[in-house]
Protein 1
Amino acid sequence: MKMNSETNKGKTCFVYKDIKCREYYGKKNGNVCFGCTVKTSKARIETNDVIVVAEYGDHDHSDTVA
Ligand SMILES: [Zn+2]
């Protein structure tokens, strides 16, 4: 399975621990932040060259069946 895929808007998606995240912020240091695509989820990850360097927030997926 590919780790990265392009959405139809050209945004990069990143799959981490079976959670699909969407690129939403590129930092000046080159790291890229991704947000969980689940609406109720506040979780974010920060990556550097597709390596996850930090995780923030908690996944609230109460509306979904994991
Ligand atoms: Zn989540």
Note: The first strand starts at residue 4 and ends at 6.
Protein 2
Amino acid sequence: MQNFKLNKTDLLGAQDWTFPTFTAYGPGRFKEIGNFCKNFNIQNVLIVTDSGSINLPFISDLQNLLLDSKIKSNIYSNISPNPRDDEIESGCKKFRDGSHDGIIAIGGGSAMDGGKAISLTVNSGIPLWDFEFLDKVPRDLKGKNPFPKLITIPTTSGTGAETENTAMVTDTKKGMKFCLWHPDARPCLALVDPELTLKLPANLTAWTGVDAMIHAIEGYSVPMFHPLCDGSALESLNLISKSLKLAVNEPDNLVARGGMIIGSYLGGIAFLKGLGLVHAISHMVGAEYNTHHGLTNAIILPTVMEYNLPGLEEKVQRMSEAMQFDDHSVNGFKENLNKMLDEVNIPRGLNEIGVPEDSYKRIAKKSMLDQAYGQNPKKATLEEVEQLTLKSIKKAR
Ligand SMILES: NC(=O)c1ccc[n+]([C@@H]2O[C@H](COP(=O)([O-])OP(=O)(O)OC[C@H]3O[C@@H](n4cnc5c(N)ncnc54)[C@H](O)[C@@H]3O)[C@@H](O)[C@H]2O)c1
Ligand SMILES: [Fe+2]
């Protein structure tokens, strides 16, 4: 099989896409933020980011760019790696106290989810947890502008959270993480500039990058006919397989950073179809031990692949082709994925990141309440989820 490389002309150019949400892609496009705010009639921005990003250069750059365009701004940065309901509540207070008319959610998935969760509840009059629904969409929206304008700007290449309206938030009372959303709430703009990821350290590049790859794999494996999501999944895998190792080893390689950030964006579209057991288990580990989402997923991946892939031969072949692997069998695919995890230094068990063995029964039980559990291609019993969780803690590969 011939091995193709990343396309420099595409990845270094500027592109505007109109779906799934208006998207401006390209190196250097961050500088257009002032104009975008004016176009969307945003005059007084609340910048939402996470506590780890507040001192990173993109925040002061953003403030200066807004100032240059005479747009008022204030910052809310009390968002943790697994955003919590109480943090969303104080963000809402800051938005109201500052009479803001728009939100720029900038950072990794945590910051963007924080901004999205604030935008869901701040004006709508609907309590935060009512947005965790399966069938009945919360309807009684208050005011003319129930969801303030929201611009998402990713600075990691992992979650694809910039494209859509879901936010993962930890319920501090239940110690569980849930997915919040509303069909009418969507970012008015995703500003996707790979230059913002050039300073992302090698470990975070790997952790977030593998998360993106897992969105594509789990999304594609969901047993549902959804050609738009499936097309995105395969193109995401194609870009990520060409870019991940390169971006980890050559942080300044803007072509690889471009491949990763679009791969991640497409992964975010792929999993609109659903996810699977990797995420179901990981969400509960993250909620209890505040571990990094992408790293947790990356460690769990081999265990769940071992369980899920037999029976998915056609899908495995299509994913292997997209990733330019030579061996398209189930075993070949698993081995190639494990090799990728080794190459980017993913630990082999959750015990290496502080998850104790005796937590496995509790984590497994909670995982079965996660939406992603029901989307997994195989219906796992409690005993099976317990075994997968235990194996992921002790030795996943
Ligand atoms: N809504 C969704 O669709 C969706 C999908 C997947 C994951 N998530 C959520 O996203 C979160 C994980 O997001 P993440 O993996 O992007 O990690 P993250 O947002 O937690 O960020 C990890 C760390 O990277 C730092 N960082 C961010 N950009 C940087 C940069 N350019 N340079 C240096 N450091 C940088 C942050 O400050 C933070 O300390 C989890 O809370 C997860 O639940 C949401
Ligand atoms: Fe994820």
Note: The pocket of nicotinamide-adenine-dinucleotide (ligand 1) is lined by residues 50, 52-53, 56, 81-82, 107-111, 113, 155-156, 158-159, 161, 166-168, 196-197, 199-200, 204, 208, 211, 268, 293-294 (CB under 6 Å).
